[in-house]
Amino acid sequence: MSTHQLELPALHSNDPLGFLAALGVLELASAALDQAVRLSWRGLAVPAVLHTEQPLTLDELAELLVGFLPGEPDKEPLPAAPGILGLPRHTGPGAPNDALRMPVEQAHRLLRDFATAERLGNDPRARWFAALVNQLCVTPAKKAKDEPQQEQQDVSGQTSLVRPEGPVWYTESTPLFAASGQMTLANNWVKAAEQCRRDVAHVRAALTGWIRVPDYTGANLDHRSTGDAAMSGDGKSSQRGVPGATWLALHAFAAFRLTGDTMTSGTTAWDTSADLPALIWPIWTSPLTRTGITALLEHPLVRGANLARSAESLTNLGLVGICLATRTKLSNSYGPFEPGQVIWP
Predict the structure, then answer these.
(1) Sign of CA dihedral 120, 125, 129, 130
(2) Tens digit of each residue's pLDDT (9 = 90 or more) over 117-139
(3) In 3D, which of 197, 212, 229, 252 has the Cα closest to residue 16?
(4) Concatenated DSSP letters of 258-320
(5) Rounded to the nearest 5°, which phi and psi values hold at 169?
């Protein structure tokens, strides 16, 4: 079957935000066109290519993507999988400020419900929920202070101390998102969508030439969103994020399956062997669907200890390169990704 190719000039393979935004385009285009849309790259440090069964221009693609913008971002930030990012935050003592970090029992129930809906009606929420809520890594509620044990009387009238209940264990979210301060995944999705809703030109610009917006943080996905004081006109540091590319990149999270060892949250493209965690991703030139890309992201050779020794096998997988972007470190949290670097060949 012949396919039509559409180059996405602003989404480059060696850039973490560009790579994630391209996967986000594939995610939404596949849902909009209801066909086996595929993605490839021209090579290293060059643009992505979208492959479709029907001819598609950049304007037509941008229009399709705009159709996924939420009408009221603060109420439903993710129309592609409604009801997940709008979940209420758990309000128990010591609960995290992020609604996606919920009691693990609640997460189990929700995933069962979403999985049932998927079996019965091809509902997409189970896949999205599993990509955003990590049930393989849990942390206890924060303990503000020691609370005195309560007293109770038994049937004989004698007083005894009641053992405090055990802690509530909360899920983690995806490590692809680095929360700092009061940031949550949901409110960063809201902010990106609000910027794009305010000016839909941001969506097309994400594909063709990025528009940076003053005082927009960019969800910690792009090192260039943190403006250096030496580079600004007034000598002050400022945020200059790219809302269109960021909004698309957040949709890429659905392609990454979460992993964990109960104490550490990860994904199959996440590396924690160095001092700072890093995203490692492959670059391929053959058109791949979402399923094929997820399989490639998970391939053990992509994160092998000696890539040079595996060069022939990596080439046989259809790869032309592997890139890495390390997280920066802020005072109390992780920050944006560093610039992408080619680690193979």
Answers:
(1) positive
(2) 999 999 999 999 999 999 999 99
(3) 252
(4) EEE-BS-EEETTEE-SSSS-EEEEEEE-S-B-HHHHHHHHT-GGGG-S-TTTTHHHHHHTTEE
(5) -100, 130
